[in-house]
Amino acid sequence: MWNIIGRRPIVYLLLVYLTGIAAAMLFSPPLSACILISLFFIAISLIAFYLNPKRPTLFIILFTGIILAGLLNYQYSAKYLPKNHISKNFKDGTYKLAGRLIKPPIKFTHKSVIIIQAERIKKSRRWIKTSGKVRLSLYKQNIQLNYGDSISVKAGLRLPKNFNNPGGFDYKTYLKRQGIRVIGTVYSDKYIKKLAPVKVNLLFLSIYKLKKRLSAFIGRTYPDKSAGFLKALLLGERTAVSPYIKDEFTRVGLAHLLAISGLHVGFVSFIFFSFFSFLLRLLPNGLFEYITGFIKPSKIAAIFTIFPLIIYTILVGARTATMRAAIMITAYILSLLADRQRDWYNTLALAALLILIYRPVSILEIDFQLSFITVFFIIYAVYFISSSKDKKPILAPLGHWDKLKKWLTGYIFISLTAWLSACGLIVYYFNRLSWVGIIANLIALPLVWLIIPLGLLSGGLSFVNLSCAKLISQLNLIFIKLLLNLVHNMAGFSFAAIRMPSPSIFQLIIYYALLYFLFKAWRKNWARWAVLGLSIVSIGCYIYPSFNSVKDNFLRVIFLDAGRGDCVFIEFPGGKNMLIDAGSFYKDGFDIGERIVSPFLWSKGIKRLDWAVLSRDKTNYIRSLNSVIKNFIVGRLLYIPLKKHKSDTYSLFKRELKSSNISEDIIGAGDSLVVQPGITLSVIYPPLANKSRIKNDNSLVLKLSYDKVSFLFCGNLGKRAEKYLLKKPALLSSAILRITHDKKLNFNTSSFLKAVKPEIAVLSIPDRPHSGFLNADILKKYEKKQVKILQTNLQGAITVKTDGKVYCIEHFKDVT
Amino acid sequence: MFSLGLNILLPASCIVCSCVLPYNHSYQVCPSCWSGLIPIKKSCATCGRPYAGNTDSLEYQCGSCKKGSKTYYAKARSIGLYYGTLKKIIQHLKYRKIKGIAPKLADWMIEHMPEDMYIQKYDFILPAPIHIRRLRQREFNQSLILAKPIAKYYSRPLMLYNLYRKKMDQAQAGLNRNLRITNVKGDFGIKYPERIKDKKLLLIDDVYTTGATVRECAKVLLKSGAQQVDVLTLARTEDRR
């Protein structure tokens, strides 16, 4: 048994441990039983193994124990909460809270975010002890907060909320995995009070202080754009980069440079290792010879490298990828010290195992998956190259040219593999495929090799001699500007990146299996057959949906949960589709079109929208629809007459329309669109000549009718519009009424409802406490008329499916 | 338990046959390969050249030594044949910088020390030096790490940094006999001749191929006043004189 396992023991341990985690996710058995059984198994097997390691049954017992340990660990970390946990001690509302910052604040353009470990909460005029992490957004904040500060704060606390749409990002679970179950907002400085300092981890405190100093130095010495880039590249301050640059880097497939990845930790360790080796090389001959009598000098350099490695890992914030790299490099250093060969698979598995023991839920995170799968394939490629090299004799002298050629092909081959292995998951999660990524990485990495050491050097020198440091910064600036310009130019290519629908998990697995067997097929015959088989399957996957696309007789209208905004997606029986608006959110910060609506459409496998409708002349709506238009092919855009705005949003929208050659139509009352026989979309408000100054009164009111079932989308209906509509009550009558509103529902509902005679009303209203959006009186009016009310903020996305005679309703989330 | 932990954390395979090492094995050659190391049983009394004859006499001399070719050293002995397992191990040691196996090899040398070598009688043990540039490349002197445990076992003092290599020539490996001899000519020097005056010295090296290196060393040492120089090497090539 050991003969098989012994080659890469930790790989097998990891696989067994993963089995445990998978079992926990599938079955979620009770906790206490698992603890006892797993401890029992592990103890027995360890003793037995020590006495007689040759028996395979002992391995089975050991593995059983580890499976259970994995299961237990996952269960514990995913489910267990102490009794006084803050999430059990509050209802949505404003509370006084005391706690400690466990990370330095993260700065955004319009707010900063802190994560505090809650210690006390004031409930009914009494402070009670509590625990758990709280994520607070601070607005208009000028107070200097640092890691370890004790603060008391008055904050509006709430549970994190998801947009409940199919294929949407699960923000709630995302936070939960970080241990955050409560979020909050602080609107002003006056609600924050610093308390007396308490004991904090001095190592962390000094490292964060160092980071602050370095960051300040970079901010002072470099011009704005480059400073932000360097801060992200070197210190992991991702929010320092302007969104524009971030977008460019994402487009060319270099986003991993801005999010500190394992690569950076590797770079930094290598730089320090070389630096220490260089110092040792400076030693006089006699001393060097003396040292070699006891230890290899490179071992000394390796030991010294551990310190900057640890400091840097903490400094950039120990995320999964950086922890992975730190563990792998430490294992590498150990292997140097122990004079062992290195098996990188084993080392990678070690990193995965440690991270999963520390935080089992990270297996579900993008960071973890992306980092490990990419590194796995890089190792795979490296071994692939070196296995062909091994056949030559050890002492085969190579010329300089040959060496360069070999190094260059290796470099290209490995970057290509890394790109291929990353793009599967990136398409799956981000629906983005960056073609120029292959070339961009080849060019950018050597530049980064220059920028990081120079940045470190100038940062280090800033403590000694400022003018020297500035000189080096000037040199570094040349390379940074070169890189930024390169990225800017490459991002300009229209084919640089494409957006595409998410593949299924099955397709993803086939993709990676194919990648794996492609390498094997180089030498092994059976792998060629595997590649052939997988290719056939993947081609099948590509073709199958077009055969299978259900052309049933149903019209599906999906009301998305897109905040308080309107967003309706319609699938017509013939296979065509239409999007009415793409939601809206608060003025800044969150791009709902990009983050909510596009992922929903991608998850449905949609590449093309036959019609897109803009029903309101409001910047929020224009912005979010613009984001959607960018990501999809749009057949025809129908929109309300737009007044000329001065805002950027408006000009960006116009530019996008021009560049993407979308045919457009301005529509008004009286226009109608016959989608197919029997299905008509008609515009009933506003008349094109309407010059109403109130924007809400100027939103489109649309009626979609399919045989006997009709829908009324009445946008932001105001009083004036209502008056106009009530003149023609015959037009209004519909079974399903859609109402959204940014302000209070203030129109005279009774007579309107009388005219529409709806059976169902679909509402989208923000559910913030005290917002006053939902007036109980109005709801009563609906109840009186026996109208069933559905709310997207409660039920998630709501789908109405109809064949023109009857309809049925599905919602994403059950109301509890 | 420590070896088990190390083998799990940094699994190693046998550097000779690349099989999986037993779980409690601490060095990187598997037991079956290790047992494949062949010690030299019979050799020339002077130069230590192995032979396969029937003579049991300790006085046997090879043809070349009988002819009286100048060796400088009094006698040379090698422990194993530079062949198969041992050859692979030494190559790993020298060119792949896998140093961990060296103490184990030194133990093996002590175990199979020829009967006519009385290590106790030497005043000093000298590892064959390598040039400082080579040392900076390789980061250890393979002769030194072999000599250290031997010196410790027989409790003899090591003499370091006295005999040194002046020139960095082409590596001996891969050269033919004549080139090897001219290659090392005048390579070695002595820093403190007074320390070796009238002393009996044992020179330890890793491989004896043509003997050019050790002969040159012995020559320099004797010139500087050493009374007697003997040579002990880990391995000896089969027959390339």
Walkthrough of the structure:
- In chain A, strands 16-15-14-13-12-11-24-25 form an eight-stranded mixed beta sheet, with helices on one face. In chain A, strands 17-18-19-20-21-22-23 form a seven-stranded mixed beta sheet.
- In chain A, strand 24 and strand 25 (807-811) form a beta hairpin.
- The two termini of chain A are 52 Å apart.
- By secondary structure, chain A is an alpha+beta fold.
- In chain A, 51% of the residues lie in helices and 17% in strands.
- The mean pLDDT of chain A is 83.
- With 241 residues, chain B is of the alpha/beta class.
- Chain B folds into two domains: 1-36, no CATH class; 44-236, Rossmann fold.
- Helix content of chain B is 32%, strand content 14%.
- Chain B contains nine helices and six strands, in the order αααβααβααβαββαβ.
- In chain B, helix 5 crosses helix 7.
- The longest helix of chain B is centred in the middle third of the chain and has 12 residues, at 84-95.
- The chains are: A alpha+beta (816), B alpha/beta (241).
- Chain A binds chain B through residues 2-4, 6-10, 13, 50, 53, 281, 285-286, 288-290, 292-293, 296-298, 331, 334-335, 338-343, 346, 350, 394-395, and chain B through 1, 6-13, 15, 19-24, 28, 91, 95-100, 132, 135-136, 139-141, 144, 148, 160-161, 173-174.
Name some characteristics of this structure.
heterodimer, A: eight-stranded mixed β-sheet, seven-stranded mixed β-sheet, 25 strands, B: 241 residues, alpha/beta, Rossmann fold, four-stranded parallel β-sheet, two-stranded antiparallel ribbon, 6 strands
